[in-house]
Description:
By secondary structure, the chain is an alpha+beta fold. The protein is 13% helix and 33% strand. The chain has two domains: 8-147, no CATH class; 149-180, no CATH class. The protein is built from four helices and ten strands. A hairpin with a 4-residue loop joins strand 9 (127-128) and strand 10 (133-140). The relative contact order is 0.15.
Amino acid sequence: MITDWLSAEMQEMLRRKYISAILMARLDFVSGIVAVHSGVGDVTFEGAVYKGIGVLGQVSQVKQSNAVKPYTLRLTLSGVPQELAQTALTEKYQGRDGRLYIGAMDSFAQVVATQLLFRGRMDVMPINLGNPSTIGLDINSRSTDWKRAKNGRYTDADQQARYPGDRFFEYVSQMAEKPIYWGVPGKPIAASGGGGGRSGNPRKQN
């Protein structure tokens, strides 16, 4: 077992007698949490019931790095009950939360310790329906969002949709067509190619 990315507490727990390691996947769908683990039977963790599917399938390498950059975890869930596969097939999932934990389970099928290995947003999910079914899932790290163009606009309508009641951009559309006057009443500021310093034609003083 590769343990260089496990906490000291988790490593110590997994060395104990009658403790086995399981992988736990938690996927946030619109209708609720879909949670499975690589053991047998149901276990409860943080209010969610994880269904045991015996084997979690394939999990790509969980990268640990000090560099902040986008990356993707590829997760294959094998032996998924058909009702869970139907939920994944029919509900909205892209952009929603997905997590992968490692857990320590005792001989009474109780999860006694966990460590979060990866958390991100669900992306593409090819599904092979059967009995049981197989689900493939890409979970993107949060930093993947930095590569995507934002759809926001500096308009009152966009600001109201995001933050109802915030009137910061209320007059932006009106200001776009208005000239700006500086210093001399009634005259718009002239375009200038230079920087600071005094003008060569100073205004006459009365």
